[in-house]
Design a protein that fits this description.
The chain is mainly β and about 290 residues long. It has helices at about 15-35, 135; strands at about 65-75, 80-90, 95-110, 115-120, 125-130, 140-150, 160-175, 175-190, 205-215, 220-230, 240-250, 255-265, 270-285.
């Protein structure tokens, strides 16, 4: 998906304007929907899923609960192909606060021009805190902060520290439908690019994700996400916009698995991506 450094290809301004108009429309609809409904379960909005494919979820892990997630992804675009395998873990320190970590165990970049690069990628550490607002307002809100550390093989690393605060707002509608809005901004602190990478400027990134999940039957969920990443607020030249339909299956105790396809909607985006997910939960310790 979006690289931390700019591409040399010139982008059309009209394409970006269309993306922002669509994003503004989504924002207006989301605010209206979130504000206009107060449906909330007895113990808060039900958690229909452990994770979306791109969008951050509002729910932290319960105290003492651990979730381990494997996330393979394949991307194809005008400049080549890319495969990544990320492994992440989340631990509930309390019922409202979790700590999380992830690592790009393997990353392969196969450009149309140039040699194939592969190796292990970057590390991420983060915290997420739920404000637990559901009973009062019908909403659930979470705040978080993630830090990316360059590591592994320099040829496939983004070679930058990224400090990213984020907020997630969620609204449940009965027991079968849920909406999420995820806003994040990454402050990029670059290191020296690898010789195989473009030696161009690094930019901060805005990320906006809007997601819906619907429980079709007890074990199956359908998801739909609109995902935007842009470095234009920091004078960059890239805005990527994707539509990501997917499905999730929770037919086994403590397991969740799913598959999604991201479709690029503008010139800056990859043509398409395939996203997988397999997660497993267990109790590390119990809340007394």
């Amino acid at each position: 998906m979006l690289q931390r450094h700019s591409k040399s290809t010139v982008r059309e301004a009209i394409q970006v304007k269309k993306v922002y108009k669509l994003l503004s429309f989504i924002w207006v609809v989301a605010v209206g929907v979130f504000h206009g409904s107060t449906a909330c379960g007895e113990d808060g909005a039900p958690s229909l899923l452990e994770d979306f494919f791109v969008t951050e979820v509002v729910y932290p892990q319960d105290m003492g609960e651990v979730q381990v997630t494997f996330s393979p992804a394949y991307a194809s675009g005008d400049e080549g192909e890319e495969f990544t395998l990320d492994v992440g873990a989340e631990l509930g320190l309390t019922d409202l606060l979790q700590i999380e970590a992830s690592w790009s165990v393997f990353k392969q970049i196969d450009p149309d021009k140039g040699e194939r690069l592969d190796g292990s990628g970057d590390f991420e550490l983060g915290l997420k805190y739920s404000l637990d607002e559901c009973e009062r307002s019908g909403l659930q809100v979470a705040l978080g902060f993630e830090t990316t550390f360059p590591g592994g093989d320099e040829s496939v690393s983004e070679n930058a520290y990224v400090y990213e605060p984020f907020v997630v707002i969620s609204k449940g509608f009965g027991d079968d439908f849920n909406l999420h809005l995820h806003l994040a901004y990454g402050f990029v602190d670059p290191e020296e690019p690898h010789e195989a990478q473009e030696k161009e400027a690094f930019f901060d990134e805005l990320e906006v994700n809007f997601a819906a999940v619907y429980q079709v039957v007890s074990d199956w969920r359908l998801t739909l996400e609109a995902n935007l990443q842009s470095n234009e607020p920091d004078d960059g030249k890239e805005t990527e916009f994707y539509l990501t339909p997917g499905f999730l299956w929770k037919g086994l105790d403590d397991f969740e698995m799913g598959l999604a396809a991201s479709i690029g909607l503008n010139n800056d985006s990859e043509d398409w991506l395939v996203l997988g997910m397999l997660s497993y939960e267990f109790e590390l310790f119990e809340d007394d």
